[in-house]
Amino acid sequence: MKTIIEPFRIKSVEPIHFTTAEQRADILKSAFFNPFLISSQDVIIDLLTDSGTSAMSSAQWAGIMMGDESYAGSPSFFRFEETVRGITGMPRVIPTHQGRASEKILFSITGGAGKVFLSNTLFDTTRANIEFSGAEGIDLICPEGLHPSIPAPFKGNIDLIRLETEIGRIGADCIPMVIITVTNNSGGGQPVSMANIRSAREICRRHGIPMYIDACRFAENAWFIKTREEGYADVPIPEIVREMFSYADGCTMSAKKDAFANIGGFLAMHDDNLAQECRNLLIITEGFPTYGGLAGRDLEAIAIGLQEVMEEPYLRYRTRTTEYLTQKLMEEGVPVMQPAGGHAVYLDAKAFLPKVHVDQYPGQALVCALYLQGGIRTVEIGSLMFGKYGSDGSLVPAALELVRLAIPRRVYTQSHIDYVAEVIIDTYHARHNIRGMRILEEAPLLRHFTAKLEPVG
Prior knowledge:
This protein is of the alpha/beta class. The protein contains 16 helices and 16 strands. The chain folds into two domains: 21-50 and 311-455, Aspartate Aminotransferase, domain 1 (Alpha-Beta Complex), CATH 3.90.1150.10; 58-308, Type I PLP-dependent aspartate aminotransferase-like (Major domain) (Aspartate Aminotransferase, domain 2), CATH 3.40.640. The protein is globular. 50% of the residues are buried.
C-alpha cells in the first residue's frame, strides 16, 4: 500500500499554537536567528531534534507507575540492566542521565592530550567531550558519504582504507578507541553496513584498539541492514542487533532516541577495569550506579522502549515516513540527501543556496527561512555546528552543509509531513531572496546551541 499507516492509535493530543509570518519575523529576530533560542510554543512543527521528543507508549506510561525510586538496588535498575545486557550482550551496564553524560565519563577516562579518536563521523556532543578532554576527533566517512545527491545503500560507513592509514600515521598507542556511529547522524542519518562494522572490528583487533558503537539509533541501523544488506532479509531485528553489538567492546547510548524516552542513557562494555573507573566517576557526577542520574520510572520506560523499538511494523513505518518526505521533495527538484535516512531528512544547503558562501553559513540561513515560511524548526548540521577556525582566523568549513529535519518518533501524522513538504518547496522556489548569516557571539564549544547571528547585508 502507498498510504503510510501509523502502527499505533493516539490516546492523548497536544495543541499546536499557530503564528503568522509577521510574528515569526519578530520571534526570529528576538532569538538572534538561532532556532535553539525560540520558545517551543512559537513553533508549529518542531523538527529540531528527535532526542527526547518522542511519544511514549501506553506500556511505557504504565511502567512509569511501576518505577521504584529506591536510592540503591532498585528493581527498576535490574530490569533496565537485564534488558540492555540482553540487547547488547555486554555485561557491564552503567546508567546515565543522557548520552552526553556517558560520553563525558568515558572520554574523561580514556581521552586527554595527545590522544586521537577515529570515527565514521562524530556527532556534536561526542566531539565536544573528546575535545574537552584535550584529545582530537577525526572523521573518516566513506567517499560516497560526501555526495548528498548520489544514492548508495550504506553512506554512513567508515572508510576502511583511511582507517588503516590513520592508525599507521598516528600510532595505535595514541588511539584510545574507534567509534562507529549508527546511524551516522552528521552524515545524513545514513546507515552503516554489518560488513563495514565487522571489517572495522577486524582492523581494530589487529592493532589492539577497542571499538565502541554510538548506539543512539541502533534499531534504525538494524532495519537498514535487514532491508539493504545481502543475507539479512529473513533475520529478525533482535538477532541483527545482537550481531552488530557483538563486534564492539562497548557502546554509549542516548536513550532519548531509539528508546522513546524523554531522558536517559547508558554506557555498556566488556572491560571490568574500565567499567569500575566509569562507575567511580559516575558516583561523583551522576549518582549511585543503580540509578545514575535517573529516576526509577525513567529506567522502566527505557527498558520497555528498547524492546518496542525493535518491532518491525514500527521500523517499517519509521523509515517509510522519511522516504515519503524525501520523495516529495525530490519530485520538485529540492536538493536532499539520498537515499532517505532513518530518523531525519537532510537538505543539501550548499546546493539549495548556491549563492550563499560557506562562511555565511548557508545551512543556518536555510533554517531561518524555513521557520519564517512555515513555523518549522530545524537544525543546521554544517559549518556553524562543525566549522573550525584556522591559524589565520579564517573559517575551516565542515565537509557537508546540511539542514536536518529530525522527525520525533510517534508524534506527527502524514498530514503534518505533507505540510512540511509544502513549506520546503515554497522556500525553495523563493530561495534567491535568502541571505547568508554572520556570527555576533559564540561559545568556544557547541557554539550552535547559543550562538547569536544576524543576516548579512
